[in-house]
Write a structure and sequence with these properties.
Blueprint (H helix, E strand, L loop, with lengths): L6 E6 L1 H13 L3 E6 L6 H10 L5 H9 L6 H7 L12 H13 L2 H5 L1
Parallel strand pairs: 1-2
Helix pairs in contact: 1-3
């Protein structure tokens, strides 16, 4: 007899939702995250102001949290530029911003 994993839905934003999703992944569940995109601080706030689309920071944190294994991509998405015009921006936020510009749609960008 084979047991199928039922999805577990978590709602929220910020570090709390990402932490919850990570715990669910490590517990072997099949988590689904519904992410509030109301973040207006730091890198996300700057991108929201400059480009007018949803701030990517909380979504980025959740995407990283949903990865089953630590990888170079975890480090890449979480990397923050320390100096210059990109100071404070996370590379993952910039990747999501670029994908949003290319696809014309934030939802498509995070797929």
């Amino acid at each position: 007899m084979s047991l199928q994993r039922s999805p577990v839905v978590a709602l929220g934003g910020g570090h709390g939702l990402a932490s919850s999703l990570r715990a669910l992944v490590l517990a072997g569940t099949c988590p689904l995250g519904v992410v509030s995109v109301a973040d207006d601080g730091g890198s996300s706030g700057r991108l929201r102001k400059d480009f007018g689309f949803e701030p990517p920071g909380d979504v980025r944190k959740c995407l990283v949290a949903l990865t089953q294994y630590e990888s170079i991509w975890t480090s890449v998405f979480n990397y923050r530029f320390p100096t210059g015009e990109l100071a404070g921006h996370s590379l993952g936020n910039l990747i999501i911003a670029g994908l949003t510009e290319v696809t014309g749609n934030f939802g498509k960008a995070i797929q």
